[in-house]
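Narrative summary of target 7.
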Amino acid sequence: MIGNKANNLIRLRDEFQLSVPDFLIIPFDEAIEKNRKTDIITLNNAAIDKVHLELEKKGWGKVSFRTSALQEDGERSSFAGQYKSFVDITYSKTALKKYIIDCYKSTFSEGVRQYACKHGLELKAGGSLIVQEMFYGKQSGVIFSEDGNGNMHIVYTDSWKNAVVENESAKQYLVPKISIANSVAPSHMRKLANEVSRLEQTLNMPLDIEWSYDGKSLVYLQMRPQTTTNLDYDLVWDSTNISENYPGTTLPLTYSFIRSIYAQVYPEFLQIIGINKNILNAKSDVFENMLGYLNGHVYYRISNWYKLVELIPGRHNQVYFESMLNPVKKRGALKNTTRMDVRSTMAIARFIWVILNSPRISRKFTRLFSQRYGALHQAIPDNVNANTIFYNIQQTKSSLLELWAMPVLNDFRTMVFHGMLKKQLLKRYSHEEYLQVLQGLTKRASIKPLQALQELGDFINSQIKKQNVTTIDLLKNTESWQECIDKTMAYTKKYSARTPDELKLESVPITENIEDIMILASHSNGSNYNSPPNSGTQISTHGLLIHYLAKNTRQAIDWRESFRFNRAQVFRMASDAYLVIGKRFSDEGIIDTPRDIYYLYEREIEEIINGHTLDYNAKYLVTSRKNKIKEYESCTMSLLVSGRGKIAPIHLVNEKKPSGKLQLGTGVSNGKVSGYIVVATTFNPHLDISGKILVVTHIDPGWTLLFTQAVGVITERGNALSHVAIVARELGIPAIVGAQDSTTRYKNGDFVIMDGLSGEIILEKRKTDNK
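Modeled conformation, tokenized:
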């Protein structure tokens, strides 16, 4: 009955053959005599004399006296800190007598009684005294063999005194159990981790072990079960930017499709800029989890994006990244611990070289994409079997998306040059000049579909006038109708991928309805498609540096907009192909309708096609997911969401929304305009917003088809590099982004004044009737 602390020291020394400072164990029931009637504690002098003689032979100068209580260091209750220990004591018989009584008394102290009561335990006094030779290490601490994340957690101080608990100066290492040998921890700590790992496996429980190291020898001072392990983990997701492409709920097929794309593309991009493949392989978990699918909504796993940015050479990438991403809650600046050695300098040099060569790489991408897209577009005919179609989809992804590291490179070129430009401009110039400098794109890829729609609208309106009719419906009965059909078909053939929510495979292309396109075109109001006033090309007065940064920023934005259309083409091709598979599935009774295919994950579709599933009736899955999506459509999700728990995603917490009056948005396209509000929460091609201000949650490229009508745009999301901002600046339309809750604060018919520079929105007249 010597207590677990003493027993564990014996096991460390004898059973596991580990280095333990020499010690002697004195059972309390041998050395202590207690009068049960008077509770007076006396010593058994004969026993004390015997122990003293033995200790004198050992010749220890300094010792520690520690209690080993019967109830201490249990698997469920540790009684940690409840029992007395005395260290760095000069040994003498007097000291032995004093501390054996003090340690014994601590086994039934008031604190121990309260601890036992709190944990529902019956108090058991007794145990033993451990007398141990002092070991003066240069470092001492504690190792917890499991932190809940598969790491060993080493906490230590550079002293022989083990004072790591609540010690702000304590240092620490996390050593991954699966790669102890590759840990950055010093060699003696790797040895410590290896030995403790062996102990943990043998004893089949997490351990809490005290240790010390003097520069030569590693010794163990105590071992006990780790009574608490942190099984909870935290995750944070942000949808500020990605919700522009995936607003509201998104169906499972789309999510599984884009998740695989993100996991493939970003490691390839990092390889282009020179990041070692072994480093990327070690970060595979990061790339597999760039996204999150929460209550049917698509989010960025924001912490993994920061980890990606940390891999890129350079000291200011986090600032540039946040300037471009504009997350709801920015992370504190990271401490840069990168040593500017030869290897680091070479990595930065390569990164700069690749960024500067991005235009050439972008041109190469455009050429290769055109070649492969043209070939693959013919490779998915409707009259082949489901297996061939699925194989062709995967070929499309691998063939076209293996090129996508080049557009991602251009995204980071945009990030770097825009970050530098913004930093330089806002030092000396106004926000207005900053917006002016961003204007004046050359390729204007985002404007071309709008320009083509405007030209189609001009033709249709001219035919309405020519035939002396008032509506497109009446135009059907005239000789101009077929020519209008032909011109509309030509438009849809060229721009079929440009549709609202174009990156959702389940979205129905607006181009499928010829009359909807005609109506949308006829509402166009003749916006200016030439270069806007105050073009960014007129910035010579800002100096050569800003001129250079602005030119590269605009060029990168130009390419980025062009690549967005290429991306939409790939998604439209995949969507059409999956719809054909859906037809095969519905013909076989696997699902009810072809469009039900979008409620299945890619993996589930492949398992059905290739015979890897237990059940070939997917109707119950589709029905269940339809009900879930319907439930999630009415679910309020904030732009920033966190989760904590044993399974973090099922414990979601929305970031609180700002309260009070409507805050200013961010002005991203200069101009002041007044007008009546039209609130649009879903895309409606029949919506006539000519001369009005469009208020929406977001604008993706397909939504900009409405830009040909509006005199101003207000969105709840976005930043200066969002699609809405880029298109608005090129059209010379005032735009405000980040005006939170605008679609609920304003109603159709409200009259407002908006300032696309300051972001101010003034409500002049509230509509109070239903007219």
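The mean pLDDT is 85.
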